[in-house]
Every structure is written in C-alpha cells, then in structure tokens.
Amino acid sequence: MDTQFLVSLTIILATFALYIGIAIYNKAKATSDFYVAGRGVPPIFNGMAIGADWMSAASFIGMAGTIMLLGYDGLAYIMGWTGGYLLLTFLLAPQLRKYGRYTVPEFIGDRFDSHTARVIAAVITIIISFTYSIGQLSGSGVVIGRLFEIDAKLGTMIGVVLIAFYAAFGGMKGITWTQVAQYIILIIAYLIPVIFMSLQITGNPMPWLSYGELVGKMGELDRELGISEYFAPFTNGTKWQFLALMFTLMAGTAGLPHVIVRFYTVSTMKAARWSGAWALLFIGLLYLSAPAYAAFSRFILMTKVAGSKISELPEWTKTWVDTGKLQVADGNGDGILQWSELVISNDIVVMATPEIANLGVFVIGLVAAGAMAAALSTAGGLMIAISSSFAHDIYYRVLKPNATEKKRLSVARWSIVIATLFAGLIALNPPGAITQIVAWAFALATGTFFPALVLGVWWKRSNAKGVIAGLLVGLGVTLTYIFAAKYGGFTILGIIDTGAGVFGAAAAFLTNIIVSLSTEAPSQKIQEEVIDLRYPEQMVYKNGEVWMNDGTKQL
Predict the structure, then answer these.
(1) pLDDT, tens digit, for every residue of 307-343?
(2) Which residue has the higher pLDDT, 160 or 147?
(3) CATH placement of domain 3-522
(4) For 253-304, what is each residue's pLDDT tens digit?
(5) What strands, in cross-sheet order, belong to the sheet with 545-548?
(6) Residue 492 carries which DSSP code?
(7) Is the pLDDT of residue 382 over 70?
(8) CA 253 to CA 439: how far, in whole Å?
(9) Distances (CA, A) of 220 to 226, 299, 302, 355, 534
(10) Closest to 441 measured CA to CA, from 483, 488, 485, 501
C-alpha cells in the first residue's frame, strides 16, 4: 500500500469513528430527540449544523467544478443558494418555529386543518429528499471509489451502510452534533488547499483577494486557445436560464424540508433568527472560496497539464481515468494533450485539486475526509426528513394516532434504513451530475413548498383547498418541465431543466390564490393563528387584540 492511501484511509476511518461515536453518545431516546433534538441546540452550533446540512456533496465536490466548467454562468449557484438563506431566515424560519411543530408537513396539515394536505406534503417531502439524497450518495461513491481505487458504485454502497447506521441510531439529536463535527472537518478540508494554491500561484495566502489577478491571464489563455472567455457572461446558457436557476435555488432553499426542520431544533424565534445568521457566516466561508478554487484549478490545468506530452502526464491523471471521471484522448494524433482533449467531470475538480497542485498526501486525505463529511452530513439530514414525513406525519398523525413512543421510534428508524438503501440503488447509476440532480430537488421545493409556506404564513385567507391544489399543480408543472427539458429538448426562453422551479412556483402561487378566493375562508381561529405568527414570541394575537405573555394588553 502506498503512503497516500494509508494517510487518506487513516483520516477517513478516524472521522467515521468520530461520527459513529457522537451518534451513539447522543442516541435519541424520545421522539422529540429523534425529530427536533429536544429543541435545545444553541444557535451557534445549530448554525454549524445548518452549514454542514447545507454544504452537501454538490457544494463541496461539485460547486467549484461547476464554476470551473461554466465560468460566470456558474455563479447562479452561489447567489441562489446563499440568497435563499436570507429569504428563509427573515420570511419563514422564525414564524415556523413559533408554530411549534416537528416537520413541514405537520405545519401544513395543522395550519390548513387538513389531513389530505398533510399527507400530500409528506409525500412531496419524501420525493424532494429522496431526489436530493441520490446526489449525496453518488458523491460519497466518488470519494470512496477514489480513495480505495474501486468502482464508484461499490463506494456508494459503503456510504449507504454508514449513513443508515448513524442516522437511524442517533436521530436528529445525534445528527445535529455529528453535523457540527462534520462542518469543522469539511471547512478546514476545503480552505487549506485553496489557501496553498493561492500561495503557489500568486504568493498571497488570501485566495478571496488574490484570484482576481488571474482574470487577465486566463482571458489571454482563452483567446490563444480560441475558446469562449471564462469570465464572459451567458456563454453556457441564456440570461433567462441564469435568472431562472438563481430563483429556483433561492426559493428552493427557503422551501427545503430538511433545512427548515433545523430551525425547529432551537428553543425560541430569536434563536431561529440567530441560527440563520450564524449559518450564513459558516456557509459564506465555503461559497466565497469556490470561485477561487475554480479559477486556480483551471489555471493549473491550462498551464501545467494541457500542452503536455500524452506519455508524460502526471501520475494522478491515470488514477482518475480509472474511475471513469476523467477522459484523456489524443484526438489529432500529435502526442500532445490539447485543452479540448481533456474532458474532466465537474464532480472531481475539488477531489483532484490537491493532486493537481501537488499539495501532499495529508491534504489529499483531508480533502477526502471533508468530501465524505459533506456528503454524509446532508444525507443524514435528508434521511431524517424522509423518516419524519413517513413515521410522524403519515404513520402517527394519520394512520396510528395511538401508537406508543417505542413503536414510533422503531418505525422512524426502519424507514431511514429502507429509504437509504433504496436511494443508494438509484445512486449506483445516477440520472445526471451531482449539481444537476440537486438542482432538480430545489426546483421541486420551489414549485411546491415555497408558495405553500409563504402564503400559509403571510396570507390568512389561504385555505386547505387552495394549498392542496397549489401543491399538486406546482409538483405537476415542475416535474413536467424537468422531463420535457431534459428528455424532450423543450425549453421556454432557453430555460432548461435546472430552472424548472420558476414555472412551478408561478403555477402554484396562482392556483393557491385563485382556489382559496373561490372557496370558503378558513375558520376565524386559524386566521388568528396566522396573524399571531407575525408577532414576537412574547406576544399573542387574540380576538383582534395583541397581548403580552404577562397578561398586559398592547395598544
């Protein structure tokens, strides 16, 4: 065994042991522990957990690669995913926390006083989370496959077993503290390589400031090679696709069930807001670094790999060719690797960068551990969302309301195991790149939950028939557009499958409003509950008046 393999294996196994140990120590013993971590997580640690939940394999593994290949157009991912947290933190999270439920389907079921709406919301949660989890498990396969130099499919199944164990065992309580550890590992693993690359190329250890120096040089290289300029806007898609993708990712962030449930794990509305603020800081560290990562990696590939003799390529290229994620072909037969002859998957850019930049075996191992932390942290949160939707919202709230605590925990744990295995099987042959699969999940959340939650919190007239119609129409329109754009070549204004959420959201908002206005208004009690959500936690709205919790009336 070579030194690189042993170092990487040691780091990965040490982090695995840490995650499993945390899950065992924080084992969920009650349903409140399993679903919302007992509502006792401090905001700063919840912010870290949100960051880990959020910085999935798509962010850690795929983000820099997507920007490297798309250039300017890839920035829609960063602006959409980051901007969505502002929407969520100010528009929905505090209000949903004040309502005091466990899950998004439970909020929808109780807010609209409808078991039908609850079940539909639970099924949509499962669809969204399942789609998202395929991307994460596919990402874990890329990491484990490269580490052990085995097929990525076998690596995926190893990830499935690990996730199924610690998610089912610890529940939300175990996953929360596991995600805190995973955030620390993944952000260190992400920042060290980009800082060292910055030092190598520019002599400046601040990549966020120094990568701008490469802009001019890369523009010259692009012109020499006769390819579209890296920093030129809308060369890989239309302006409308850029805007639609950004909106889809932004609204999808505010509607993702596994992200929203993280705000249920704190004690108050104020703590929910602070969780969002901390999360923005922790997420910003990675998202501000991704464009620098992409620029440095592209520069090194263009100057040190492209133009080399095929027979003298670095050793790392052979290893990645074996995984199927890198293709090197001498198309014109001159023995020299041209830029156009190098086909690199956006899913391996971050993983391969320590080798590309020759940063040493420890950094290679650390990045592998960080990538696994990113994939596992998000997958764990997604499995809890799937489990809670089935075990809590469908099994307990609809089918078996008299089920014991022990039985409910058992159903929750088994649903995690089954969902993880099923998602793992599909991830063996994923239907797209990691970032693309994840974008579909966001499109589905944009077209379903974002309109339902915004109207449910901010429009008291929205009723059960309106939300049911809105959810179904939004889901149908979004799915139809994704399939028509991906497999039928159908587009409107050049908007492809990843921007489908803009059409789903528009259809869902209109349907909800039209149906709600055409049918009977919600009860006075429900309308007062909706108005009450807009006031701080220490205030209560009742019978058209606002009261403090101490019994004093507000003027």
Answers:
(1) 777 777 777 777 677 666 677 776 666 778 777 677 7
(2) 160
(3) 1.20.1730.10
(4) 888 887 887 777 777 778 878 888 888 888 888 888 888 888 888 887 777 7
(5) 539-542, 545-548, 553-554
(6) B
(7) yes
(8) 10
(9) 10, 11, 11, 25, 54
(10) 501
**What does the alpha-carbon distance between residue 470 and residue 258 come to, in Å, rounded to a whole number?**
21
> Which two structure tokens, joined as six digits, stand for 161?
């077993």
Dist. CA 293–CA 197, nearest whole Å:
8
- 328 φ/ψ angles, rounded to the nearest 5 degrees: -125, 120
Which of 309, 313, 311, 322 shows the shortest CA–CA distance to 356? 313
Residue with the two structure tokens 């014109």:
332
Q: What is the CA radius of gyration of the chain?
A: 24
Backbone angles phi, psi at 474, to 5 degrees: -60, -45
**Res 140 pLDDT > 70:** yes
- DSSP-based three-state secondary structure for 235: coil
pLDDT digits (tens, 9 = 90+) for 452-473: 999 999 999 999 999 999 999 9
At residue 170, the pLDDT reads 62
Report how far residue 279's alpha carbon sits from residue 282's, in angstroms, rounded to the nearest whole number.
Answer: 5
At residue 178, the 3 state secondary structure works out as helix
Amino acid letter, 197: M
63 contacts 77 by C-beta, under 8 angstroms = yes
Report DSSP letters for 215-231, one per residue.
Answer: HHHHHHHHHHHT---TT
Burial annotation 16-40 (CB, 10 A radius, 16+ → b, else e): bebbbebbeebebeebbbbbbbbbe
Q: Which residue has the higher pLDDT, 395 or 328?
A: 395
Q: At what angle do helices 501-518 and 464-488 cross, to 10 degrees?
A: 160
Q: How far apart are CA 425 and CA 137, in angstroms?
A: 9
Q: How far apart are CA 348 and CA 71, in angstroms?
A: 16
The residue ranking higher by pLDDT, 118 or 3, is 118
The ranges of the chain annotated as CATH 1.20.1730.10 are: 3-522
- CB under 8 Å to 71, separation ≥6 — which residues? 228, 229, 230, 231, 232, 235, 236
**Taking 60 as the threshold, does the pLDDT of residue 550 lie above it?**
no
Lowest mean pLDDT among 42-51, 158-167, 253-262, 505-514: 158-167
